[in-house]
Write a structure and sequence with these properties.
This protein is mainly β and 278 residues long. The protein is built from two helices and 15 strands.
Length: 278
Amino acid sequence: MKRCRMLAIVFAFLAFARFSRAQEGFFSSWEDRVRATTAEQPAWPVPVVTPSSGIVQLFRTDVVRQITPSETTIWNYGNTKGVDIIPWYKTELDIAVPPYIQHNSTAKDGFGDVSMLLKYRVVSGSEKHGAYSVSVSLTGTIPTGSYKNGSMDASIAPAIYAGKGFGKFDVQSSLSSTLPTGDTAKLGRLVVWNIVAQYKVGKMFWPEIENNATYYHGGSNDGRMQNFVTPGLMVSKIKLNSDPRNRLALIFGAGEQIATSHYHGYNHGLIFTARLAF
């Protein structure tokens, strides 16, 4: 009986050791793949608002303060950010955490919608090989928001991204369209165009200026356009490990969306962003 018990313990230990080695090999291969694929694109930080033209792997959370025309302050905690991973070569998968929206009015506070994004980098070159990147993506949103803090129907949003660097200066842009799967006449379609110019100062500072435009087709805002100019600053990257192969690093940033169009649902949108690259 004691011998059987001893054999069972030995087999369990060997199985655990084998499982541990397999897990270690899986994560090691993943890290190598992430390092290899990100080395083939410029090392620009993801801007405050404009999406990256490349692919990234990080945890991200934003806090946004918006002031409505009626002088009501709205806080958005999370801003539909979450975890972005590189599961395959040249591919990014984003899983967004529903944001929590605080209205400070008679409107009920609550969580927004769940969304996921699949992105593929079509072509790219590092700073030594042209400093450019072009990607495409598809986002899907599920109407899980509470108390009208999300959309009435699900939607899909195809997008294209492009970026080009010139020494310490880079320009990135994105163009996307949000297409509801339900009542299009009521919800309308959105076309969103972002463009940003960044310049590297010192080792970690990236001042930037963005233009964020939204065009409304159908729905209650049919024919309108909302535009913001967003000055900002990214601090990237604060390394957490001295090993040059270790990607663990902190990234911080902030910006303010200043309305420049006649129509705008809010103004003076302060954005604070924090990321953990891994």
